[in-house]
Backbone:
């Protein structure tokens, strides 16, 4: 199981009817929160505690973090006649992980195919060939 951080940023909106602003401070304002988005694309955490610790470390009053559990997919990896089954969140991460397990010098020589999404088997069609 792995976890990721999602972030949303707060934007200060001037709600004063006369739009007064004194030295960058509004007479009357409110915070409007944006949409949740993945914060660090390549950063995942092994435990929920690690992800929550990182969220506390980077917390500011104008941004909020939440910990999201990533779904693990199953991939079949192929390299020079060898095969291995790998659990990862994306095919790129599966390729990197399989290259380490195969001890491949070049990651791009490892081929990965999706086998299951959240434990549900995936059937590939030959119609595209």
Residues:
């Amino acid at each position: 199981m792995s976890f990721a951080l999602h972030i949303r940023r707060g934007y200060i909106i001037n709600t004063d009817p006369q739009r007064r602003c004194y030295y960058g401070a509004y007479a009357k304002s409110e915070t409007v929160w944006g949409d949740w988005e993945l914060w660090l694309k390549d950063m995942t955490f092994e435990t929920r505690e690690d992800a929550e610790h990182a969220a506390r470390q980077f917390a500011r009053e104008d941004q909020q973090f939440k910990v999201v559990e990533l779904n693990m997919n199953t991939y079949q990896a192929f390299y020079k006649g060898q095969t291995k089954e790998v659990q990862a969140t994306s095919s790129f991460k599966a390729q990197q992980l399989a290259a380490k397990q195969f001890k491949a010098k070049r990651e791009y020589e490892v081929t990965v195919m999706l086998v299951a999404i959240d434990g549900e088997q995936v059937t590939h069609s030959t119609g595209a060939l």
Observations:
- The chain has two domains: 2-70, 73-121.
